[in-house]
Write a structure and sequence with these properties.
alpha/beta, de novo design (two linked rop proteins), Rossmann fold, 8-stranded mixed beta sheet, 12% strand
Length: 446
């Protein structure tokens, strides 16, 4: 899920700071957009924006069974601001309690009650290990990952039409995923392939669009690619920018299924997937539609946003250099003072398979649709644009402007409660607009 793209506001400060350290004159810049930190953020986390956003993310899963409002508030109330250990302990304890209750319900034959409990426990286990990635050998990570998957699969088996765990052949290994079907008839239907972004999981995609698609009559094939929850925890597979090499094998797998209409396969990318999915669509021509939620043109844009234009190529070179102690020190200081930077860089080092925060920032430079890539997309494409996107405000419009294919831009506003990154906490509103567009787009190919 994430429903989180890479970096966001934290790294935007590097450009101006690095320029100043090199003696460049830094012009007055528009302040970096910050989230709307409400009373709950202040009350629960002393204004810690990162903890609040991750809590809001779990609130957003309530619509499709990924949490309970009062339960989430009680968990959040046990967490000390900025304390990663207390974050883990609170979410893990809740997941343990709820999963045990769900198992007891299942043992007594209460299948719906058990399914609901397993879904919530799965999401809480996922959340519990979210801030532990600064030490990938922390045993708590493996425990949370395995229990999150186990709980989700226990719930998946209890749906009227079971959600099937799948392993998709990929290079010399497999990618974990799930096959959703509206029923078990085998009827040929349109299919949505879904992947998350920088820090989500394929299990979380249930709450972020998969169940909504099934309710509307679609098959869904959701998966985790390299750098994402499953492959990263299982094998340490890091992200790769050429996402078409990941999506291609998933399309191959989809075409082996008798219920998949080969003329109506759509690709949905959430968060950082808003760049990964369009990147894949530029080269994978078997797709009938592409959805970028939210749209991202250049993942590295926040790094360069506040740097003077004349300094940006120099900054790129410094990020890629073998050594740069001064810039390394600046990043370390940024992590010490900014909770979003602290999390983003520790997770980024882990997910990109690099050794330093600067190497992570350098890796992001390759995740871009510039150089004519966006212009190569030919299938109809929907770009979602959240008004107050914490991480990539303005990127959706840039992507939309570069597209030459049939295209649609849907703007989600703060006034309607949907202005956060990937419309967190407005899932049903967002899914209505997204899948209405897809219904109308694929109807033309029926």
């Amino acid at each position: 899920m994430n429903r989180r793209s890479v970096l966001g506001l934290a790294l935007a400060a590097i450009g101006s700071g690095a320029a100043a350290s090199a003696g460049a004159q830094t012009p007055t810049a528009t302040p970096v957009a910050k989230p709307a930190v409400g009373d709950l953020s202040k009350a629960l986390f002393d204004g810690d924006e990162q903890f609040w956003y991750e809590t809001l993310r779990v609130f957003g899963a309530v619509d499709y069974g990924g949490g309970e409002f009062g339960e989430i508030l009680q968990i959040a109330g046990q967490i000390a601001p900025g304390d990663y250990d207390s974050w883990h302990a609170a979410w893990h304890a809740a997941a343990e309690r709820i999963s045990a209750e769900a198992q007891a319900q299942l043992d007594r034959g209460h299948r719906i009650s058990a399914r609901d409990g397993f879904l919530r426990a799965s999401n809480y286990y996922r959340s519990s290990e979210f801030f532990l990635h600064g030490n990938p050998s922390d045993p708590r990570m493996a425990v949370a990952y395995k229990r999150s998957v186990a709980c989700f699969q226990a719930a998946a088996a209890l749906f009227p039409t079971p959600i099937l765990p799948i392993e998709i052949p990929y290079e010399r290994t497999t990618l974990p995923g799930y096959l959703y079907r509206p029923d078990a008839s085998g009827k040929v239907r349109p299919t949505v392939i879904m992947n998350t972004g920088f820090d989500g999981s394929v299990e979380e995609m249930h709450f972020l669009g998969a169940q909504a698609a099934v309710e509307r009559g679609y098959n869904v094939i959701s998966f985790d690619g390299p750098g994402q929850f499953g492959p990263l925890h299982r094998e340490g597979l890091a992200f790769r920018p050429d996402w078409e090499k990941v999506v291609g094998p998933v399309v191959d797998f989809a075409l082996t299924r008798r219920e998949v209409d080969p003329r109506r396969i759509a690709l949905f990318g959430a968060s950082m997937g808003g760049e990964l999915a369009p990147r894949a669509a530029a080269f994978e021509k078997r797709l009938a539609a592409c959805i970028a939620d939210d749209g991202v043109y250049d993942n590295a844009a926040p790094i360069l946003a506040n740097a003077p234009p004349a300094y940006r190529e120099t900054l790129k070179a410094r990020l890629r250099a073998a050594t740069d102690p001064q810039l390394d020190a600046m990043l370390k200081q940024l992590m010490a003072t900014n909770p979003t930077a602290r999390w983003a860089m520790t997770h980024g080092v882990y997910a990109m398979g690099v050794k330093t925060p600067r190497a992570y920032a350098a890796a992001l430079l390759d995740y871009s649709l510039a150089g004519g890539i966006a212009e190569q997309i030919t299938c109809p494409t929907l770009v979602c644009d959240a008004e107050d996107d914490l991480f990539f405000k303005g990127q959706a419009q840039i992507l939309y402007d570069h597209l030459k294919c049939p295209k649609t831009l849907i703007k989600f506003t703060t006034a309607e409660g949907a202005g956060s990154h990937c419309q967190v906490s407005a899932s049903r509103l967002a899914n209505a607009r997204i899948f209405d567009w897809l219904d109308e787009t694929l109807a033309m190919k029926a």
